[in-house]
Amino acid sequence: MQAEDLPRQLSWSPDPFHTEVERRADGTVYLRPAEALSAYPERLMDSLERWATTSPRRVLVARRVAGGQWQTVTYGAMLSRVRRIAAGLLTRDLSAERPIAILSGNSIEHLTLAFAAMWSGIPYCPVSPSYSQVSTDLRRLRYVLDLLTPGLIAAFDTPAFERALQGVSGSIEIVGDAGPVTSLEALEAPPGSALESAHARTNADTIAKFLLTSGSTGQPKAVITSNRMLCSNAHMLRQPMPFLVDEPPVLVDWLPWNHTFGGSHNVGLVLSNGGSLYIDDGKPTPAGIQETLRNLREIAPTVYFNVPKGFEMLAHHLNADSQLRRNFYSRLRAYFFGGAALAQHTWSALDEAAVQEVGVRIPMLAGLGATETGPSVTFTTPAAGRAGLIGLPAKGNLVKLAPVAEKLELRVRGPNVTPGYWRQPELTAAAFDEERFYRLGDAVRLLDDADPARGLAFDGRIGEDFKLSNGTWVSVGPLRAELIATLSPMAQDVVVAGINEEYLAILIIPDLRGCARMLGSSAALSHEAVVTNRELLTAIQQRLSAHARRNPASTRCVRRALMLPTPPSLDQGEITDKGSINQRAVLSHRGPWVEALYRTEPPPQVVRIEIAA
Q1: Is 584 a residue whose pLDDT tops 90?
Q2: Would you place residue 136 in the very low, low, confident or very high pLDDT band (cuts 50, 70, 90)?
Q3: Residue 485: what are its φ and ψ, rounded to 5°?
Q4: For the chain, which end, N or C, has fewer CB atoms within 10 Å of the first or last residue's CB respectively?
Q5: pLDDT at residue number 612
Q6: What is the CATH number of domain 3-38+369-462?
Q7: Exposure string (b/e) for 35-61, b if CB count within 10 Å is 16 or more?
């Protein structure tokens, strides 16, 4: 992307990520931003107070209510209510040892209670609603509540959480909006000296919240998230997105607050820059996208965040719907994606829609991070206009590229890095190396070995890679992305098998609607119908045979495939509530199917890819 392609005269530094490089004899590379991170607020609530003082009537948060109208809350109104609720929280026996657990999703009530908790210095934990509503046995929810020992549980849209509340709440006070629970109004108390003293005691090291992350195995871990982490991360965003300083950002956002992308990155971005957050109750699903489109036809974002699947679905509608396209691009300055790799065809489709509407391409920004890093570690610039790039370290981050299993693992130190996992010292110790760098577990590669400052590309997850029986390493991440693209639209995801085997095989998680489209059906098919459909199995065989001819090496050539007959299980940890697949868990819990892939005479549902001699 050339400078003249950038819309609306965005002022990008010619070298916003100037990086100093240090190499060690053992192959370790250190990347250090040449410019230090400038001063940032000590507490996230300092930004709420700032904007409530200077721009009290500006909309902070909005959400649709019954009838379709937007309910809005200004900065001034939010601060006033936050202080009253914070005063009420202080009358309860709440602390880091007895925090607040919020079971419900994004809402004005959720945000208000979260801010009140931070104002008073009481940590809170946003828990994935799927733990209460999707899980069949509530096992993960019980585990989380046992780990945190909350003194207060909140669930707005309370009837939807009745089963979970009855199953796990015990004698804990419940805050909600229906039934025999404490309302937010009843929680309020007059602010007084006790509140002033409690707020004054909060500082950069005060725990703002616990964020749950399951990692690659095991039960959820509670990531300690401090004010310092949130504030430094929000300040880092000004570097790759300088337009945030030029005008208050407007977001139309569905990303869940129980994850770091939506709850730390995006909420922090809005609050720190005096912006407005329009809560989008849509999702990147065939049904949920309609609500997102409705919102984007009315509210024009200045920067738009989504996951790759969301951008893929949006790109299709932008190119087909002129009204949507006109409003969406009317003041858009940049897109930003996270969570997984964005396919180049999606990138190109967004470019096409932008050029059609405003005559120029819109910058697509990306980066890499983790819940434990607040989340931002690296960012790209508008010039890095292709898939797979993650850029260079943001100001404040010292990045270490450590040789691990024939790859380079990304590690980081910075003010945005967590001090550890709550009540799990062994896991905390294992997460950091001998120099106190946090191990992300992500592999990266240098775009130019001779010039590391050119930037980095994502190279998969260290923990997913494995060796075949011939001793060669399989790089699962890049191969998996390639196979999903090869099998589109039939595959939602794939799991790569082959540890200590002679060849690679894959388990396919079918995309039921995509399979229906392949068959010319307007309705989604059942799993049972998909996994035995000969037309689909033939298409899979043809696609994988073509891929195998292009990729004959044993570490890239897939010889067998099988569509899973049942969807991945949240309770078994095979899928996260974000929808991402846990490779290890699937391979562990689907042992009989993995074994079927490697039988001398496999069952008929196994697709065999013959390789020409």
Answers
A1: no
A2: confident
A3: -65, -40
A4: C
A5: 64
A6: 2.30.38.10
A7: eebeebbebbbebbbbbbeeeeebbbb
Detail the DSSP E strand segments found in 447-553.
456-461, 466-467, 473-474, 491-497, 504-510
| Token pair of 435 as six digits | 């120099």
Place of tokens 């609530």: 45
DSSP 535-579: HHHHHHHHHHHHHHHH--STTT-EEEEEE-SSPPPTTTTSB-TTS
Give the residue ranges of DSSP H helices in 359-457. 425-431
Q: H-helix or E-strand containing 78? A: helix 75-89
Q: Please name which of 222, 209, 139 lies closest in space to residue 431, comparing C-alpha atoms.
A: 222
Q: Are 354 and 330 in contact (CB under 8 A)?
A: no
DSSP sequence for 168-200: H-TT-EEEESSSSSB-HHHH-----HHHHHHHH
Q: Does domain 237-364 have CATH number 3.40.50.980?
A: yes
- Is there a contact between 504 and 534 (Cβ–Cβ < 8 Å)? no
Do 237-364 and 73-202 have the same topology in CATH? yes
Measured CA to CA in angstroms, residue 229 lies from 191, 234, 235, 374, 413 at distances of 27, 9, 10, 6, 12
The one-letter code for the residue type at 552 is: P
| Torsion sign across C-alpha atoms 526, 528, 530, 534 | negative
The fold of the 73-202 domain, in CATH, is Rossmann fold (3.40.50)
**390-438 residue pLDDT tens:** 999 999 999 999 999 889 999 999 999 999 999 999 999 999 999 999 9
Axis crossing angle, helix 344-358 with helix 308-320, rounded to the nearest 10: 40
pTM to 2 decimal places:
0.89
Rounded distance, CA 116 to CA 121, Å? Answer: 9
Residue spans of the domains in the chain: they are: 3-38+369-462, 73-202, 237-364, 465-608
Res. 309 pLDDT band, cuts 50 70 90: confident
The pLDDT tens digits of the residues spanning 165-197 come to: 998 777 899 999 998 999 999 999 999 999 999
> Is the Cβ–Cβ distance between 331 and 300 less than 8 Å?
yes
